[in-house]
Design brief:
mainly alpha, 0% strand, coiled coil, protein transport, transmembrane, YOR075Wp-like protein, membrane
């Protein structure tokens, strides 16, 4: 007669029940963590939507201001279509708009920095809870990504958006500065061309009738250098000492004015060259930063793919663990029934 195997069977059943209860508790714990993580992702998504919405509004305003500057540039550089008062008013309004956009950009940047700092503090305060979850993963769940890594990816993406806005603000500001400088150059040229030529004297009585009759238009054509020298000597001989002194003084003043204007023109040319160099450097920086932004966008796509892949692997691991637990339970029940059957037959 076979021995009584009922106590052994009960021990097996107790061990199987304990294993099932432990597995169920682990699954419930993981599900609760995923729900909490999903809620946190929803919150981050809400913040992300609000942040992106504000950035899109700022970008829209910048694009509209850039269009306005391009449309008004032709009239702005023309004295007949816009008066100086209208140009000054446009300058003031444009400066105020750009200043407001800078303040808006600084506000968004500070907001993102503070949000990221608070998120990191929250993850650090809950690091022990995440470590318990990650310590229970098996080999099939090795692709699980920590939420802090996701937060870092979102932060890098938002910084890329802010850099793009910063480039737009600098571009619009440089465009506005360029047309202002072109206006200044045109005004300087007009002032230079409209400078009145100094006259020999304001009073007609300063010269004698003989001196008035002597002019370039009334003089005979000069055919040789000797004739020109002779004509010059005759003209000088007919002028008095006071008239010669007045001519010399006016000649010196005119020469000084032309020298000053020449210095201003050289200064303007130097300023234009500096502006061109700065514009070239800015274009190079814009190109490099555009490449960096594209690289960050590509990295963001890779992060999203990794997150989806990790979630898929986690679901597979849960299903595999559930099937293993069910198979173990059914196997234990079948084995117990078989043992009871053998005991009954024996």
């Amino acid at each position: 007669m076979m021995s009584d195997l009922t106590p052994i069977f009960r021990k097996y059943v107790a061990v199987i029940d304990d294993a099932r209860n432990e597995q169920n508790s682990i699954d419930d714990h993981v599900e609760r963590k995923q729900e909490d993580f999903g809620n946190s992702n929803g919150t981050c998504e809400m913040f992300s939507d609000s942040f992106i919405k504000e950035c899109a509004r700022l970008l829209k305003f910048l694009v509209e201001l850039n269009k306005v500057i391009k449309q008004i540039e032709k009239n702005y550089l023309d004295d007949f279509n816009m008066s100086d008062a209208e140009k000054d008013e446009f300058d003031m309004e444009c400066r105020l708009q750009i200043q407001q956009y800078f303040k808006k950009f600084e506000f968004l940047e500070n907001y993102e920095m503070e949000r990221h700092s608070l998120s990191l503090k929250r993850f650090q305060s809950k690091s022990h809870r995440w470590s318990k979850i990650l310590s229970n993963k098996n080999d099939n769940t090795k692709h699980v990504i920590h939420p802090q890594d996701i937060e870092n990816g979102v932060h890098e993406f938002r910084l890329g958006v802010l850099r793009c806005l910063n480039l737009w603000i600098k571009y619009v500001s440089s465009k506005f500065t360029t047309i202002q400088q072109e206006r200044l150059i045109l005004e300087n040229k007009m002032n230079f061309n409209s400078t009145p030529m100094p006259t020999l004297s304001n009073n007609a009585d300063d010269f004698s009738a003989d001196a008035i009759d002597i002019s370039v238009s009334q003089s005979a054509p000069v055919e040789t250098v000797q004739d020109e020298v002779k004509h010059y000597e005759e003209t000088i001989s007919k002028l008095t000492q006071e008239q010669l002194q007045v001519l010399e003084t006016e000649h010196s003043e005119l020469l000084n004015q032309k020298n000053e204007q020449l210095k201003k023109v050289e200064t303007i040319n130097k300023t234009i060259l500096d502006i061109v160099n700065i514009q070239n450097e800015l274009s190079n920086h814009l190109t490099v930063q555009s490449q960096n932004i594209n690289l960050m966008l590509n990295n963001q796509d890779d992060i999203e793919l990794n997150i989806k892949k990790g979630n898929k692997e986690l679901r597979k691991a849960k299903r595999a663990a559930g099937r293993t637990a069910k198979m173990t339970t059914y196997g234990a029940i079948i084995m117990g029934v078989f043992i009871l059957f053998l005991d009954y037959v024996g």
